[in-house]
Fold this protein.
Amino acid sequence: MKTKSIFKTLLTGTAILTFATLISSCKKNDVDESGSANVKVVNAAPGSSAQSFFLANNTVVDGGLDFGEATDYIAANSGNNLEAQFRNAGTTTAYGTGKFNLDNGHYYTIYLAGAGQTSRVKLFEDDLTVPASGQAKVKFIHLSDAAPANIDIKNGAGENLAVNLARDNSSAYLNVAPGILRLQVTATGSATSLAEFDLSAFTAGKIYTVYVTGSSTDNIRVTQIVHN
């Protein structure tokens, strides 16, 4: 009987430990106090007012982030299940929220996208590895609610740069020659351009993201940000 009693006690202790570990791993704002991550914050929500940004209940951007604007990288909390929240500047009203894991020393860009029922916060990790010699490096992100759910991004000659890019997703990085880059945005598989853009000159050695926004087919646009 003693053996059974000890065994039962061990099982109970193991169950408690497992439950405690599970609760800890799911804890909201499980901040790693020993390190930090680097975050760039972008307002990619057409029609939004200036935004503040909070991470794990700490102020990262204190207002003034208008649509199309991006911050530099900011040292912020790393950890698991960190709540990211954009708010209309000067208020406590959340415009969009998300929850993310951020690793020590890594670089991320956090985007506010959409409006109303579609408002959302999206996170993408950035690769700051130096581009190939004499080249720039770019990735594309689809954040437009008005564009088709899947799009192709082509250069001025109609050659594909990103194929079947799904909404709220990022393409792989690709190297591009320095200079002005003409882009076309189309529905996947279509030759009909939804919009065309000339982006400012890409510089050799620089790393870029180009993201697509637009709440109606009349205001689809692309925005270019630099990471280094």
